[in-house]
Amino acid sequence: MVDIFKEESANGLRNSWNVYPLNKLDMTRYVVPVGFHYSPNSKIENFQILEYDPVLCKTCKSVLNPFSHIDFRNKFWECPFCNDRNIFPQNYKEHISESNLPAELIRDFSTIEYKLNKKDSNFPAFIFVIDTSVDAEELQELKETIQSTLSSIPPDCYIGVVLFGTMCSVLELGFTEFPKLQIFKGT
Q: Residues of CATH 2.30.30.380 domain(s) within the chain?
């Protein structure tokens, strides 16, 4: 059994499940959805910065990670999120084996950072998920913390806010002329 608190302190990541479905049938049987809570300011001992672009799933664009299912003989990987099969790029095919894994497949490096080679027009996105069903004093403290955080975020980043309580509100803050707000029932 995995000690989730030890895992969280080691890599800043808590999963709703520490095991992922092996196939689409198993995925339909899961009652609790796969989700993550990531603490980006955690101090990570084995933090890796990779000097190349990540390998992405062709369907859902998730990144190759230690939870992916690997077929070393046929040189493909299966995405743990959408269960789609992806062929490794040529530079991986030539060198990957059970004894020679790239850093993104090593379990101890579940939190890594990529130094992208290509310049992309996409900017980082920050999404604040806020539970509004707390007392007013706690909400005031949260408001002050978020205001402080927003002042330290670079101006070219995307920012989103999800508020949940009896209702769930999704705000897109990137549109000054026409802010977008979507509201859903809390159920």
A: 4-114
For the stretch 16-65, pLDDT in tens is: 666 666 667 777 777 766 666 666 666 777 778 888 889 999 988 889 98
Q: Which CATH class is domain 4-114?
A: mainly beta
Please tell me whether the overall predicted TM-score, pTM, comes out greater than 0.85 for this model: no
Task: Summarize pLDDT for 133-171 with one digit per residue, the tens.
Answer: 888 888 888 888 888 888 888 877 888 888 888 788 887
Q: Are 112 and 47 in contact (CB under 8 A)?
A: yes
